[in-house]
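A quick aside before the break. I want you to see a complete sequence-to-structure record at least once, exactly as it would be stored in a machine-readable document. Don't worry about memorizing anything.
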Amino acid sequence: MNARVFRPNAHNYANGTPHSKFPDLIYMDMEIVGVNAAFSGYVPRDIPSLLEAAPDLLAIAREYASQCVNCNGSAEIIKNDRGGDAIDDRAEPCPACKDIWGVIDRATKP
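That is the input. The structure line, written in tokens, reads:
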């Protein structure tokens, strides 16, 4: 997502206005700059804050996963024999960080 532009008072609603029947939802307008996309509607209260924090959360996840001590941040483990030679050519997903890399992939794929 390139940038977010919140437009207050669009559609005669102010951003952050609660839904009359569902108080856990608030109204939000959002435009995604550079891709000609827009969204207007009711969303859970934490969505606007989560969208604002998403770039920072993604950076922290990348940093954390790249520092994995089991795979040195490669996301894969190659099993070696006692002499240090690879047992086979297949790498296995690192059990310590595969979930973090999975979340990063989901967050960055179009």
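Two observations worth writing down. Helices lie at 47-66, 98-108. The CA atoms of residues 16 and 26 lie 5 Å apart. We'll return to this after the break.
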